[in-house]
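Tutorial sheet, problem 5. The two components below are modelled jointly, 550 residues in total.
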Amino acid sequence: MTRVRRELLRWSLLAAAAAVLVVFLVAQRQSVEVSYGRSPSTAALPEGSAGELSDASVPSVEEMTALVAADPVVRLPGAVARWDERRVRAAIGDRATRILVAPPGLDEAERRRVRDVESAEIRIVGTEVSGGPYGASPDDLPGWRARFATADVTGPLLTLLATLHDQPVPPDGDDLRWREPTVPELAPVVTALRATGRYVGTGATLPRLPEKAAVAAFPDGAWFVVLPVQPYGEPLPAYGPALHRLAPDQPLVVMYGDWIEYHGPGAASFAEVAAASFYAQFGGRLGRYAYPQQNVLGAYLAQVTDVRYAGLFDRPLPYRPFDPLRVALPALPWIFAGCVAGFVVLSIRTVRGSGRRPADVGPGGTPARLAGLSALAVELSLLTDGRSDPALVRGVGRLRAARDAFDDGLPDRHVRELLADAAAELDDVARDVRMPGYRPDVYLRARLS
Amino acid sequence: MTASVLQWLGGGAMAVAAGFLAVSLPRRRARAEGRRVAWSSARAAIHDATVSRDASPAAVPEAERLLARAELLAAAGGGADAARAAAEHARRADGLWRAGR
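Model answer (structure tokens):
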């Protein structure tokens, strides 16, 4: 009984070890996604499906070449890029530099046509400035702000010109000027924000707010002010600071064109990180394509969510459901080792347990039977004659074989077989000499009882 | 992670080795025991046959031949099959001598 139970335990331990091993191996699936607290954001911008291609197109290469030959600065229909003409002209000097300005949102073939206009030394697609083998783009917040709020490419243009002409690169400046919004400007914004929490200016391409991303980024709600791209060269109305003074505890997102600002609680530590990471990552695409503001805002909010979940600002993490596998994973090797150890110990006991078992030393046991038959053989040996001698000798031979087998630890069954053969021979002898009292059955019953 | 790899590999190897030994050791032991049992029976049978030969009044060449072969097998040793063959030869020789008596 205990033996059966031990076998059962042994194999179930092995099965448990195998199951633990399988669980461990299955849990080894690695993911490249690393997020502190499993950020639920969806920051992917799918190619082409995000409305980044505009209806604008460009003429053929020959037509553009002809246009560029006719005019040093060619603005194709839909072009948005602006720059400080005085400074750019000064940088060009008396060289015959030609500039071709194409609209944003061109597809790959149209952009290649623009690149193939070889007489245009500088090409601008959307707000992406390139020329010769170089491309120039802003790499700090003032540069991105100018580029995306007012389509100003003065800085990249001057940098590119200086690089192409082997001249010292001018330092980056912040040319954007701000002004206080007027009371008539501010009043409808405040009214709309207090009513619905958002204000969408005329011309903004935001049919509806990306609600899910907004809730993930600002769980307590935020105000959204969405304005179209601002005219170049005019001071921008600084809605952010003005509204922040009105409601200091309210998170506020202000969007000028593709430029997004955050004002509100935690802005000092948070706004720059969010904006810098967002424009460093997506600035190139935003300048080249014509994304609707809705998609830009959605991507920005996803970035904000990622920043919040990055754990940089000691924000409390949302509840994460208890994952037994993750808790148990460090213990799995030890559970496995324990199961294996148990299996090994039980296996050893099983192997040793299958060895010899002690012989039955009682009156019915093999040793007693061997002794009794030996004594009977001695007594019979006095009575035999030539006819019954062989049987006696064979019986004695069998008895000796039985004794050897017993001494060698051979199985009891075999010893008993040999003894039975010996008893049969002695039975023949007893019948031959007509001594019924010496028949083994009778003799042993008398001796061993 | 790297530290626990040793545990997994070592544990797995130990489990496999223990399972293998737990199966193979008893089997080997049983086979060796069976061999010894078979030889014990064979030797007893050969002894019977020699006794019958000594007691037999007439010579039986066929039985002599069988017993010689059985003794040859026993002298050469071998596995359980050889032992069973030797026992069979000895038994047949024993039967022939007893019948020829």
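Marking note: Chain B has a mean pLDDT of 87. Full credit if you identified this.
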